[in-house]
Design a protein that fits this description.
It is a single chain. This protein is α/β, with parallel strands linked by helices. It has one domain: Alpha-Beta Barrel (TIM Barrel), CATH 3.20.20. The chain is 39% helix and 18% strand. It has helices spanning 3-9, 30-36, 77-88, 103-116, 145-156, 189-202, 215-227, 246-254, 260-267, 272-292, 307-314; strands spanning 15-20, 46-49, 55-60, 66-72, 91-97, 120-124, 173-178, 206-211, 234-238, 297-301. It has an eight-stranded parallel barrel with strand order 1-2-5-6-7-8-9-10, surrounded by six helices. Strands 3-4 form a two-stranded antiparallel ribbon. β6 (120-124), α5 (145-156) and β7 form a beta-alpha-beta unit. The longest helix is centred in the last third of the chain and has 21 residues, at 272-292. The chain is globular.
Length: 317
């Protein structure tokens, strides 16, 4: 079932969902099951599965030439989607990204997902890898999420690469990302909103936000979207803070602000255990407020670690 249909059938009830990471190379699918199992009691109608491009470095060989060596790879998004469908009967939402993929690789992944019966995709540009100063698209790929959307939409019309005839159409419902505090590369929030509206006008059916820690920013973002004619469901993304490092890492990596009240409480903590308790309580408070004010879904970024999110969900669902 499509994400928007799950939301429609909930009749205003806030749903629970979460995102998982594919395991690193060498780990098994059991790592995924171990992350999902504790959260199934909260009846998630869909589970997001991220898609990570490979990271690499150049290693100098004895002959003086440089050899490209893959240093990090998270394989298996398509396979994980199959496992989720088979084991849990829950709709997976694979992330489809621009970075590291050419158009043919993207088409092949989408064909495989369609064969499995996957009906949802979250279309993203993706981030730069550590060896890049800024995002660099594949020479035969897409530079922007809106371009990637066009390829998915063409497949939904039965238009495939290099084919002169129309084939069987796919049936993907497309979600896109939204940034309550503005995408860090956008020159202004107005500009960011313009391109978000472009994606919705093309056919995006729902929006999932970047994490935020101040609910007012989410509701201000929703208000701006509505004022600009963006009327699709807007799903808030939530991330509980669990370590002292998050105080500096989350703002620097994800370009989000932490409210003063949260920072004040975190600065009192003397250990990660204390930070975790503050983070859980803050996220529960955020979640309750979002539910009371009509958020369609609460979507948690678990980083494939479910214990903290389980405690939050126990207080809500």
């Amino acid at each position: 079932m499509k994400v928007v249909d799950h939301i429609r059938e909930a009749n205003g009830k806030t749903l629970f969902s979460f995102e998982i990471l594919p395991p690193v190379k060498g780990e098994s699918v059991q790592n995924i099951f171990d992350a999902i199992d504790p959260l199934m009691e909260f009846k998630p109608p869909f589970i997001d599965v991220t898609y990570h491009r490979e990271e690499y470095m150049y290693k100098k060989r004895e002959n003086g030439l440089l050899e490209r060596v893959t240093t990090r790879k998270r394989p298996g998004t398509v396979g994980i989607c199959a496992a989720i469908l088979n084991k849990y009967g829950v709709d997976p939402v694979p992330h489809i990204i621009c970075g590291g993929f050419n158009k043919e690789e993207t088409e092949n992944a989408l064909i495989d997902l369609d064969f499995l019966g996957v009906e949802n995709v979250l279309v993203l540009r993706g981030d730069a890898i550590k060896s890049e100063g800024r995002f660099e698209p594949d020479p035969e790929g897409h530079s922007y999420a809106s371009e990637l959307m066009d390829q998915v939409l063409e497949l939904n019309q039965g238009i495939y690469l290099h084919d002169e005839v129309t084939r069987n159409p796919t049936n993907f419902s497309i979600g896109v990302a939204g940034y309550p505090e503005k995408h860090f590369e956008a020159p202004s929030l107005k500009s960011d909103m313009k391109y978000l509206k472009l994606k919705v006008d093309k056919g995006a059916e729902y929006i999932v936000t970047q994490m935020f820690f101040d609910n007012d920013k989410y509701f201000e973002f929703v208000g701006k979207c509505r004022a600009n004619g963006i009327n699709v469901p807007i799903i808030p993304g939530l991330k509980p803070i669990t370590t002292l490092k998050h105080m500096s890492l989350l703002p620097s990596i994800f370009h989000v602000d932490l409210p003063d009240a949260l920072v004040d409480e975190l600065e009192k903590c003397k250990s990660n255990a204390e930070v975790r308790e503050v983070g859980i309580e803050w996220c529960i408070h955020q979640s309750k407020d979002l539910m009371e004010r009509g958020a369609p879904v609460l979507h948690y970024y678990t980083m494939s670690k479910s214990k903290v999110v389980k405690r939050i969900a126990e207080a809500l669902f």
